[in-house]
Amino acid sequence: MQTIQAINYSIHFNESCYNYLNEILQPNVYSKLFILVDENTSSYCLPNFIAQIATEVEIEIIELEAGEEFKNIETCVQVWQSLIELGGDRKSIIINLGGGVVTDLGGFVACTFKRGIDFVNVPTTLLSMVDASVGGKNGVDLGHLKNQIGVIKEPKAVLIDTQFLETLPQSEMLSGLAEMMKHGLISDKSYWDKFKNLNNLKSEDLDGLIYESVLIKNKIVSEDLTENGIRKALNFGHTLGHAIESYCLENTSKQNLLHGHAVAIGMILESYISKEKGLITNDEYQEIKYFINEYFEKVNFDENDINEIIDLMIFDKKNEFGKVQFALLKGIGNIQINETSSNELIFKAFEDYNL
Questions:
Q1: 154 and 199: one domain?
Q2: Which terminal residue of the chain has fewer beta carbons within 10 Å of its beta carbon, N or C?
């Protein structure tokens, strides 16, 4: 797979990742290399990653507890303190080796430490490969509210080694699949159509699907880095999806949902809203609902759940002037941004989802 050029950085794949990394890790350029991992990537990914690095730059490992609940400022403080104690300076570089929590938080730590040091994202989950690590968004949650604190700043590079996917459980693979489906729905109908025949795809086809997904996201981000226009398209499924994810995180009576699972539900709900607003046909909606439900287990929401989820949407970072903003489908493969919806229509979307 050829290297993809983003606005101010490059995205490398598989064997070219380590060629690139070993070229830049020179002692006259970087004083120290910090590798940020969580408990999972420390065990399953770090040994193979370290074996590929050939550098004279001193290496230090910083390990986080695994889980979305640790993607917060308190964890950042711990990492900043570790960087100080281990001799980090403005010529240090951080490699974020992990899923979306590690790349989001690690990027934010790097952007703010000593007013900004270089960082490289090495995503190890399907979700982080096709979404979280690409595009320059870095940040943390505020309580259970997703991604409320952060900055937009590109990494020095993103290195995608698909061999890391062999360490993932099925649930994590599905979580990434949701974002890939989203890329097809908002931008490329022929790409979406490939997911309708996913059971017929061979494992070696996955690299090609990942590459296409990264191309779609990079193209959109390159047109609108700071999310003032078309980049909002990437939020399809996320206005309701983030609220659902936050609601499940803060309620002990609800099972926590992986990000992709919550977004998959959000895409069905927001497709229903798109249909009711006349932006897609009923056939298109039924197609989307059917194929997403084929892969993602349904979750039941009662009236109280729905009311609380609607209340949480007011904190969505896309909102402007107190109005909840949606990115809705305008046919499969197209998007319409800055749309609104009544609470009554949202309730109807949940009712239809619950059927």
A1: no
A2: C
- The DSSP call for residue 183 is H
| Eight-class DSSP state of 68 | G
Q: Nearest 10 degrees: CA dihedral of 166, 168, 170, 174?
A: -100
Cα-based torsion angle of the residue sequence 214, 218, 220, 226 in order, rounded to the nearest 10 degrees: 130
Same domain as 154, residue 175: no
Rounded to an integer, what distance in angstroms lies between the CA atom of residue 239 and that of residue 204?
A: 33
Instruction: Supply the range of the domain harboring residue 78.
Output: 4-167
In tens, the pLDDT along 203-250 reads: 678 999 999 999 999 999 999 999 999 999 999 999 999 999 999 988
Query: What is the spatial distance between Cα 71 and Cα 148, in angstroms, rounded to a whole number?
Result: 11
- Beta-bridge mates of residue 325: none
User: pLDDT by residue (tens digit) across 141-168?
Assistant: 999 888 999 999 999 999 999 999 999 9
The size of the chain, in residues, is 355
Q: Based on the domain organization, do 203 and 322 belong to the same domain? A: yes
What's this model's pTM, rounded to 2 decimal places? 0.93
Helix (H, G, I), strand (E, B) or coil at 121: strand
Tell me: do 285 and 341 sit in the same domain: yes
Domain's final residue, options 167, 183, 211: 167
pLDDT tens-place string over residues 12-52? 999 999 999 999 999 999 999 999 999 999 999 999 999 99
**In this structure, what are the phi and psi dihedrals at residue 162, rounded to the nearest 5 degrees?**
-70, -10
Closest alpha carbon to 237 in 185, 172, 309, 304? 185
User: Residue 319: pLDDT band by 50, 70, 90 thresholds?
Assistant: low
Token pair, residue 332, equals: 């499969």
Q: Same structural domain for residues 157 and 175?
A: no
For 60, residues 6+ apart whose C-beta sits below 8 A from its C-beta are 32, 33, 34, 35, 86
